[in-house]
């Protein structure tokens, strides 16, 4: 096949700029979890966008930030490993935010991938008036000579196909890297655990979101469907109480919400069994981090 292009792209940017939402919107299926809490993303998750003339493999990275814990440090390492392997880096900045020191830090940082093509993406562009989008594009142009510059909205599906086209044009000529029917190579258990974590994050505040991890204990295929056993892990007893809620009301909601999401990605009925466990200060403990898969 001539003129078919394929390669890897990653979106970088401060936490909460909309990288995961953009990945999901481009792939057209829920791959990465999203939330209004910063630093939701903890794994390099791949989604694959298939088009007649090419294929994009999206690697989702955690938000870049100043590491305060061992977990933070490992997340930054993960971003760096990802950067070294991609063909295109998409630098994301929301239309409504001024470009600040955090953005400049990331802009300098992507220099560490000299071979990657670099594009700037203005996200959430439906949230501001058009002149503001134009201003943001100009501000970005002052940062560097981008290979492409494009405003998008994941929520209102603005410019998503043009973005895919722009990125594909920057990819090397190559055969398809993944089979046509594959949208993610994330293992089922990993996707399940992320969906549970997303449900558990709903409505929690302050430090608690960063303290929540989910471990899948077992997935048992029975005649009536799957039984999934999972632990929601927190760092302190007080957090355990918050997650469970009065008369276990909150935990029941988490289970109901997660089960519905998991059903959407499963081909048979699912029964979800959740337990809440305390692993004291797991974010700072190398052994616990290993056990939780970081
Ligand atoms: N209005 C609007 N909100 C958006 C858009 N894209 C993302 N958001 C919201 O912005 C918030 C953060 O989105 P995420 O996709 O989780 O951001 P992220 O950059 O992946 O965040 P981290 O995982 O923390 O790095 C969520 O509340 C999204 O719903 C958009 O196009 N328009």
UniProtKB/TrEMBL annotation:
Protein name according to UniProt: GTPase Era
Chain segments carrying region G3: 60-63
Domain Era-type G: from-to ranges: 5-173
Keywords attached to this entry: Cell membrane, Cytoplasm, GTP-binding, Membrane, Nucleotide-binding, Ribosome biogenesis, RNA-binding, rRNA-binding
Pfam families noted in UniProt: KH_2, MMR_HSR1
G2: annotated span: 39-43
Subcellular location: Cytoplasm; Cell membrane
Region annotation (G4) ranges: 123-126
Residue ranges of the region described as G1: 13-20
Similarity field: Belongs to the TRAFAC class TrmE-Era-EngA-EngB-Septin-like GTPase superfamily. Era GTPase family.
Region G5, residue ranges: 152-154
InterPro entries according to UniProt: G_ERA_dom, GTP-bd, GTPase_Era-like, KH_dom-like_a/b, KH_dom_type_2, KH_sf_prok-type, P-loop_NTPase, Small_GTP-bd
